[in-house]
Amino acid sequence: MMPDTTTLETKNASLSSHKSPITIGLLGLGTVGTGVYKLLARFPQTAISKIAVKNLDKQRSLSQIPPNTLTAHAEDVIKDPNIDIIVELIGGKEYPYQLIRQALESGKHVVTANKVVIAHYGPELFALAAEKGVNLFFEAAVAGGIPIVLPLKTSLAGNQIQQIAGILNGTTNYILTRMEQAGLDFQAALKEAQAKGFAEADPTADIEGHDAACKISILGSIAYNAYLPQPAVYTEGISNIGAADIEMARTFGYTIKLIALAKGCENNAVDLRVHPMLVPSEHPLAKVAYENNAIWVQGDAVGDVMFYGKGAGELPTASAVVGDILFMTQALQSGQSYLAGMDFSLPGQGSIRPIADTTNAYYIRLEAEDQPGVLGHLGQACGDHNVSLDAIMQKGTHPETKTATIVLLTHEVQEADLQAALKTMQAQSSTKRIHTVLRVFQP
Ligand code: HSE
Q1: What CATH code is assigned to 149-310?
Q2: Annotation: CATH topology of 5-145+314-342
Q3: Which of 64, 120, 227, 408 would bridge with 364, disulfide CB 3.0–4.6 Å?
């Protein structure tokens, strides 16, 4: 049989027309940019030709950057006709979004580590990339060096994903680990995380769960094939967790972790949330310590798999960025351009199950007067709202306040019922303060 010459010629034409090496333009030369610069030096099939930086005069650890590579203007990089792939590593939201848009508009392929931009503008940018016949890759946007975006799109594509549960923020995991291991309170553990360079000077996005919410919005969108934007993710942070909660959780056989959850529900809805949870101490997620990240995926064919490693840092994040660059480079050098299916340019917003409709088991820690009948009142409040109790513990009496710490663990109940029971408990004169309400992770 004769070979299909049309296809061969087309392929050969695009092969020969494509120069080698593939030319890279970097936007940003901070921690991750520096790592990408170092790592790409191993690969002669790529060449960094321009780098946009905020401050041209800054002293840098990279001594070998050739003169005239640095520019203070991102447009110089985006508009350079010799550059094939733009690598956006600036961080932030609106400015990098504009730059990525411009790059795609100019027909450049883009690699980004920017979870905020992908979580907020993903579908629009992927649609633009498809229209222009170029790729937008973002492996590093979720859990830094851990490969999860590509495995979810490719290796796990044969599964219906039942559940994804991730420890997607290293700062909060470091804080919770130190609270658990050294008995530190939240503020002391946060200070330590900041001193070690994990937490930002303003750590709000980490400790209030917004960083993890961006990441689970991306993973959920991929797993459930529907755009699930970050603002729709129900989000609670860890600043309310006390040393007493860590200790109580341990007594019951649990470890407290900030969990980002995406779970498929009936009618194609997705249960999507970020909040601290009591994780059974024997579960692999409970053993993920310090600044490490992990993503536990339950597929209907594969069963349970867990991805574990460094979710941030110079070389771990560069590893993911460079993986994307090399994947794209290989495609370009073999004459392919747009790789369909590598994005989530999805037709519409997916439906997210309201938190009130979710069911969970709960942990409640409260302070109540230490007097006859108090446990009975609490039990009554639960019973009146269909909340079935699994365990109750009262720990001593505080001599000054004459109050006792009481911990309730419930069976799996409806969130709306639990909230109603909490309202009733709060209204009881013997309840002094409901300190913490946490959900229990049920693998
Ligand atoms: N601030 C994030 C963390 C890393 O603490 O995990 C970047 O996503």
Answers
A1: 3.30.360.10
A2: Rossmann fold (3.40.50)
A3: 408
